[in-house]
Amino acid sequence: MVRLAMTQPQVELRREEILDAALELFERDGIEAVSFRRIAARLDCSYSAPYRYFASKHELLTALRARAFRWIEQRMVDAIGVSSSPIEQLRMLARAYMDAALELPDRYALMFFDIGDDDLDPSPELVEAKRAALGVCTRVVAAAEKAGQLSLRVDPLSASHLFWCGAHGLVSLQVGSQFVMGRAYETLAPMMIDTLIAGLKAPPP
Amino acid sequence: MVRLAMTQPQVELRREEILDAALELFERDGIEAVSFRRIAARLDCSYSAPYRYFASKHELLTALRARAFRWIEQRMVDAIGVSSSPIEQLRMLARAYMDAALELPDRYALMFFDIGDDDLDPSPELVEAKRAALGVCTRVVAAAEKAGQLSLRVDPLSASHLFWCGAHGLVSLQVGSQFVMGRAYETLAPMMIDTLIAGLKAPPP
DNA sequence: CTATTAACTTAACAGTGTCAACAATTGGTC
DNA sequence: GACCAATTGTTGACACTGTTAAGTTAATAG
Asked: 20 to 30 A Cα–Cα from A42, which one of A124, A190, B22, B173?
C-alpha cells in the first residue's frame, strides 16, 4: 500500500486551517464574505486549493455549522453547571441557548438559515453535533421528570423537542427582526419557558 | 405636469407580471432559479428591464415574501371559519399554519430563511403583511381569553407571540429536516399546541 | 412636428462556484 | 541517491450571478 503525501492528522489540520479562515471572514463580514477566493487569499494559496479538502461550498458551510452547534451545546452545558434543581437547570439551559443565539445572531443564522439541501448527503459530523446538543436538553428534562418536577404528560424526548422548538422559534423570529415583535425578547423569553413548563406540569386532559 | 408613459395601475400590473414569473421559477426550481436573467427570459424582455420595477433582487424577494405571508394568513382565516369555540379556533389556526408550512416548505423557507438584511429599508408592504397575519392569531387568542377559555396569565398579544414562536420553531426545524427529529411532526404538532394552551390556562406561580 | 421622457436594450464590470489540465512536491521502493 | 507514483497546489476557463452606465426606442405633451 502506498503512503499518502499527508498523514491523516495533517489533512485534518489543513481542514481546520481552512475552516478557521472561513470563520474569520464570516464573523467579520457575514456569510456573503465567505468565498473560496477570499479564503484562499487569507491562506496564501490558490482559490482552487480548498477543493482538495471540501468537495463543495455546501460541504464547507456544513462543517462550519457543525462547529456552531458544538459551540451552542457548550454554552448550554456551562449554564446548567451553576444551578442545582433540575427544573432550574432547564430554565438556565433554555435561557443560555436563547442568549447565545442573540449574542451572535449571524452565527445562529448560519446554523439554520443559509441552507441549500440538507437531506442529500447528510454530514455525519453535523448530525452528531445536532444530536449531542439536543441530548443536553433531553437529559435535563429527563432529570426534572425523574425528580417529580415535571408531570408525565409527554416523554422526555418529546418534551425536549418542545423546548427546542419554542426557543428556536422565539430567537429565530427575533434574530433578523424578521417579525414585528410587539413584545420584547426579555419579556417573551421567560414567558415561553414558564408557559411550556406549566403546560408540561398540567395534568393530561 | 408631464404625463407618465405608464399609468400607475399599469406599473402595478407589470410588477405583478414580474412577480408571477419569479414565483413560477421559484415554485418549480427553488430559490436558486430566481434570477433576473431567467425572469427576463420568461417575460421576453432584457435582463435589466425588471430593474425599472424593483431596485434590487432583495426588493423583489421581499415582495414575494409579502405574498407568501398573505397566503399563509388566508390559510389561517379559512381554517378558523369552520369551528366555533374560540379555543378550538385557536387549535385549528395553529394547525393550519403548520400544515401550510409543511405543504409548501420552500415557500415557507422563503418567508424566513433567505434573507440578507431586513432591518435596513423595511418594506411597508412586508411589515403590513406580517402584522396582518399575526393579527389573525391575536384576535382568536383574545376571543378565547374573553370567553374564559384561557387564563389571564399573559396578555393576548404576548400569548399569540408564544403560539407563533412555537409553531414557527416546530415547522422550521422540520422543514429542511434541519434537526434530528426523534419524534414525528404529527405527534409533536398537537403536543405543542396542547402544551401551550395548558400552560396559558395554568394559574400564575 | 418636435422635444421630452419613460421604458427598454446592450455592454460591461466585478464577482461567484466549479472543474479540467497542468506543474510541483512529497514519500516509499529499488 | 534515483526513480516512480500519488497527492497537493496552480492556472485558466466556463457558466453563471447582481448591478450599473450608456445608448436606443417609442410614446406622449405642447
From this structure: A124
